[in-house]
Design brief:
Elements: H1 22-26, E1 35-38, E2 44-46, H2 54-62, E3 66-69, E4 77-79, E5 84-85
Antiparallel strand pairs: 1-2, 1-3, 3-4, 4-5
């Protein structure tokens, strides 16, 4: 399953963090549950089950529609614009 936003993604992105939410770290916080990688710019942020929901906030602020799970062994992608797995 795909969506029109997949075609707008760059060929690859470089993650801005390895194993932490960049926004939580910048705020001196921890406690994220799962990490998501923005496939437009490489921003790593916490999921909606985390206290601050930084991945959703990144979409709301920057409009980058697709994230990939940044958890070991997971490769699924989510499109915020279409509210579905792509």
């Amino acid at each position: 399953m795909s969506c029109e936003h997949v075609a707008t993604l760059p060929a690859e992105v470089t993650a801005d963090a390895d194993d932490f939410c960049a926004d939580c770290r910048a705020a001196g916080e921890s406690g994220w549950v799962h990490l998501r990688l923005c496939l437009t710019c490489g921003h790593v942020a916490c999921c909606d089950s985390s206290p601050r929901r930084h991945a959703s906030a990144h979409y709301a602020a920057d409009g980058h529609p697709i994230v990939r799970s940044y958890e070991p062994g997971e490769t699924w992608r989510w499109c915020y614009a279409d509210s579905r797995v792509v």
